[in-house]
Amino acid sequence: MAAFPDEEYSERLARTRTRMGEAGVDVLLITDPANMNYLTGYDAWSFYVPQAVIVPLNDDAPYWYGRGMDAQSAVLTTTLPRDHILSYADDYVENPAKHPFEHLATVLKEHGRERARIGYEGNAYFFTARNLQVLTESMPHAKFVDIDLMVNWVRTVKSANEIEVFRQAARIIENVMQVAIDAVNVGTRQCDAAALISAAQIRGTKEYGGDAPANPPSILSAENAATPHASWSDRPFSPDTATCLELSGCRLRYHCAMSRTVYLGKPPADLLRVA
């Protein structure tokens, strides 16, 4: 089932369609996994193959489009009508002779979009140059328009439901950070601390579980403390060193982040001054 009520997704779609109208776009191809989730509730680890949510400007429900084996995830995590869940066969995957978006172009033409103004997310990580090339070659009469971060800007205005989920993520990160602070001890391997942190992130609270966050735990110790976003190692924590922790709690894909620094020993004056 979807994470939010149908009314929530209807409101999101309405605000997105307002922007579509302002941009003169007839249909959107949403390929950013976060935006696919935002507009339909779709939640599965399938971003590594071509997929999209198709949003028509009219009041018709969106369409999910993706790999056949992932269609059941769309059935389970969205409330889209069954005939709006469309898929391509597995022999399209990593096939140099044909591409999934050739099939998508056929689907769009079958739905009367052959000459439409079609918006695509040119700044999305998982919308490749090959995707756009295939679409433009397969639909020569359509006009493709880069909508950039249109849906991302819609997402900046949070609903009451979303704010409540953020609060749940905040309760999770409070627990996670305490586990992390307790795990940073002289002689403990960084990877062992990371394992405890990851377990706490997924365990969540007694009331609700957590999700795997978008980023793994950032544990920056000793000389790595000055290196943002490095990964942990299997080295043990050493005395008289600082360890920077950048972690998050995640609930229904909504994140709440927190950073803290742990010093094993007596902190030097310069470190205390900037704390």
Question: In words, what does this structure look like?
Answer:
The chain folds into 2 domains: 6-155, Creatinase/prolidase N-terminal domain (Creatine Amidinohydrolase, Chain A, domain 1); 160-274, Alpha-Beta Complex (Creatine Amidinohydrolase). The chain is 38% helix and 18% strand. The protein is built from 9 helices and 9 strands. It has helices at 6-23, 33-40, 71-77, 100-110, 129-138, 150-155, 160-183, 190-203, 269-274, and strands spanning 27-30, 52-56, 63-67, 85-88, 117-120, 143-146, 218-221, 242-251, 254-263. The protein is elongated and about 70 Å long. The two termini are 45 Å apart. The model has no long low-confidence stretch (mean pLDDT 96).
Outline the secondary-structure elements:
Blueprint lengths: L5 H18 L3 E4 L2 H8 L11 E5 L6 E5 L3 H7 L7 E4 L11 H11 L6 E4 L8 H10 L4 E4 L3 H6 L4 H24 L6 H14 L14 E4 L20 E10 L2 E10 L5 H6 L1
Parallel strand pairs: 1-5, 3-4, 5-6
Antiparallel strand pairs: 1-2, 2-3, 7-8, 8-9
Helix pairs in contact: 4-5, 7-8
Broad CATH class of the largest domain: Alpha Beta
Walk across the major sheet and give the strand order: 4-3-2-1-5-6
Q: What is the name of the CATH superfamily of the largest domain?
A: Creatinase/prolidase N-terminal domain
Topology as H/E string? HEHEEHEHEHEHHHEEEH
* Average pLDDT: 96
What kind of sheet is the major sheet? 6 strands, mixed
Shape: elongated
Radius of gyration, taken over Cα atoms and rounded to an integer in Å: 22 Å
